[in-house]
Fold each of these.
Amino acid sequence: MTPYGKPERAVVTGGCGFLGQVLVRTLLEKEIAVTVIDLPEKEAYLPKRKGLDFQPNVWQGETERKYDVFYHLAWAGSAGEGRKDGFLQAENIRQTLEALALAKKLGCHTFIFAGSIMEAEVEAAKKAGLSPKGTDCYALAKTAAGNLSRALAKEWGIRHVTGRITNTFGVGEKSDRLICRVMDAWEKGEVPPLTAGEQMYDFLYVTDAARAFAAIGEKGIDGKTYIIGSGKPCPLRNWLEEAMEVTGGKGDFGKIPFSGVSLTESDFDTGELERDTGFCCRVPFVEGIGRLWHWRKEGLL
């Protein structure tokens, strides 16, 4: 336990997003009041629940009410072509520091930054002597935002904890990320082209990811970066073959050359997360894939 104890009030930027909505629900279930900051048009995505408040991107609420934990999930261009947009990614860095400044103004003792496993991929590529690619703008900006906010948080006496997300998936996801892409193809009866699938991967169901973030908000240690994953990394092909058994889909392995850097098992190590917070994965990958596939087949997408 940290000396802070269980938070009473939290702020979540990007709380109307895929992971954000589940995190908000998780915090409310723990009887933590939540204020969501997101784009004004996304307010309709949130349910009307006791203890839940919404603020548009520019904070218009009172600042006299004090909060405990500030979760910064909001990030533009986290997938697709936006990852290559250096100007957009630079703006994300500024927005992160603005979020930290607001956390300070609201009296938060803890700032939780949502990182990405792609940061580890860029670090590994650098060690291998490879030059950055356009799509690395996203991970480079995440690294910069995390480092800058950590330094500033230390100056301001705010506990700073990073949750480095591996790959989340689950009911409610609408994106062009891997699991959704292959399921799009399977629903059309297509066989998507894939790499050989030898690179290491990890997947975590969205409710478990939200529980992990709630746990580090309460018990995470200042300055640490926790890997948010299942703790059971294996080659991507293994994951996809399990998904194919559930859905009946197929994949053309080896059709696409893999041009990245394969991470090691240690890059996916969730040991510190488990030791410091007591977190453990509850939803097996196969069960999570079944839930998502059923949700899509029911026409709820």
Amino acid sequence: MPARHRDNIAFTVVVWVLVALGAAAVLLVLALSGAAGTLVVAAGLAALPVGPVVATYLWLDRYEPEPRGLLAAGLLWGACVATSAAVVLGGVGGLVAPSTARRPPCSSRR
């Protein structure tokens, strides 16, 4: 087995392990958030652009094709990073601009 092939396999395994760890962390945070209904709707809406994105990557990859496993790992890694960033920014946004739902309604005095 050539050394280059072993290096490619090792790299692919490392990438997949990192993707699995990132996905597990994101799933843990989302599971502990307690918003199952919102999670289902958000996951459905987030899946809508995946088809065109994958088609674009495959179209761009036609001249110098990469292994399909690495393309899948890159897509999953991007999904983990995007979800993590959204969770962090949502948390920071909640601290910076707290919800107005806790405030009592305005009463008009005359």
Amino acid sequence: MEVNCLPVGICSWNYELSGSGLEARTSLSMMGESGGVSVNGRAFSINKSGVLAPKWLMEEGSQVIAEASSESLLTRAMVIFSGADRYVLSASSAFGREFELAGKNAQVRYTPSHMFTRRAVMSGQCERAELAVFGFWLAALSWKRSQNNSASSSSN
């Protein structure tokens, strides 16, 4: 699969994803680290809980579809559980913005188009489109955090 991930506006962290039979939208809240995704007509909410050990729950209605948590405070990696299945979302390198999702029947790469853009491409394979999009949402959250951290450190 190859899916184009385009921000809905020049300064937006909300995306439209399309390609390979996938139509999806992601949204990150302006404040905090919650939001939602829609995948081929299905709507999912994503809510963060906890401060020292944060977790993100992806829910469809009241049913938890997936749960993500940081693997370590020292790495840019998250563990995602969906039922009994375990997935790992991790940065491809210590300095780049590319992420990879690996797990049961899933090998997906989230690659920014180039250094100075929020556009990205999602490629690879994943049996469950909602998990691939959740992985992208988490990668975009990491990119947003990184930009916010850069902006706040340069203003000091």
Amino acid sequence: MTDYEEYVEEAFEEKTTVFSVGHLFDKISRYNSTIIENNITGTLLFRGQANIDFPMDASIFRNNMISKETALINDLILQEPYEFGNHMTDFEQLVKMQHYGLPTRLIDVTTNPLIALYFACSDKTCEDKDGEILILIESLQRPTEKQVQYFAALAEYDGKSIEAFVDYFVQKGLINNALDYKEKNEKLENIFRTKYIPVVAPKNNERIKRQNGAFLLLGIDIEKPDYFLKNTFNLKDQLIKDFGDGIPRSLVIPQEHKQSILKELDIIGINEAFVYPELEHQTSYIKSKHHIKVGE
């Protein structure tokens, strides 16, 4: 490797790697300056992943669970009808289900880069893997917006044909039945032209508040001929491409720096007890702080 090639490699590593909390702060400060100077619209969103090889997808997209999406939701509603009833919108149900661990078509993101950094470093099963922070610049939609209603409604759709797909949204009251079939189909194709929409998280639980949470609500890949069967996809290549604005959309957290970063985060109050306010996580954090192993 020539001196110039080595210089280029080091410069790229500096641009796309995070070694400490302060290092991340410096980068975010520069990104904010770039956004302001270039009048870039949108909100900076972050997602921390403990393994750089992880895809960017929703939990319901994994292990062929998409085929069980409607059954999972209906079973939970039948099991807990007072928790998930007609008083809630489809999106509100998904948020609550996500909170309690049911696989959904939501991806958690945050407006706080330190929360993303914590998630990129804290998974003990990935201690020997480089972590990653994914960066997005998005205009957040409100949960009441029409497109959010369409995307959230997908969760309870279980049809097997294009006709069933169109009719489902008519029955949901989202498409005017007075339109002819072609108009209805074109409307749906336009709505689902994007694979995801960023949505403001309702601050209705302490965990979302602490994590400065927001969501990516995933739809379907309308370009595939079987889209009416609810296909799955990985957003990563789409999200980390070069947008030409000088802001990298992926930052690497080297595995050898994870523990030191977690210690830095702990000093400023970003730790398991803060991120997860539930009592079991308070006790887990205290046990970890006193070096008490699981089972002791």
